[in-house]
Design a protein that fits this description.
- This protein has 133 residues and is mainly alpha-helical.
- The chain is 65% helix and 0% strand.
Length: 133
């Protein structure tokens, strides 16, 4: 049995803060190195995110690696939530039916195309664009 102690699960508030911090830094973190964003810029952005989460929730210290892994998990969960909602609702998926964290993940990662099935739904696209501003 491992002697390493497991960290507590991320709270909903921590997840929401992570998503909001990603929203603020999406141009740096998602930027391509060819567009003038360096690896050091990305590393600095992740360090700022981890530091902000640790300041807001000092009882648990999260590392850059923790934050990056959680972001990847949130992205996967958001994709699954979109798919699940589409199966339940059919073609009329509404942006408001999704969790707040998923809404932010959609805007950060430009997943609005996942909300659209076989037809153009301009109202959903407009909601996503409004949320991004």
């Amino acid at each position: 049995m491992s002697s390493r102690k497991r960290r507590p699960n991320w709270t909903d508030q921590e997840c929401l803060l992570l998503a909001q911090l990603m929203q603020e830094r999406k141009d740096i973190i998602r930027g391509k190195c060819s567009t003038g964003v360096s690896i050091q810029d990305k590393r600095q952005a992740w360090e700022e995110i981890a530091q902000a989460i640790n300041v807001a929730f000092p009882q648990i210290q999260r590392t850059v690696s923790d934050c990056n892994k959680k972001w990847e998990n949130l992205l996967a969960k958001s994709r699954e939530e979109i798919k699940r909602q589409r199966r339940q609702v059919g073609t009329g998926l509404s942006f408001q039916q999704l969790s707040t964290v998923t809404q932010i993940v959609i805007s950060v990662m430009n997943l609005s195309d996942m909300l659209l099935q076989d037809r153009e739904d301009l109202s959903v696209l407009q909601l996503v664009e409004t949320h991004q501003r």
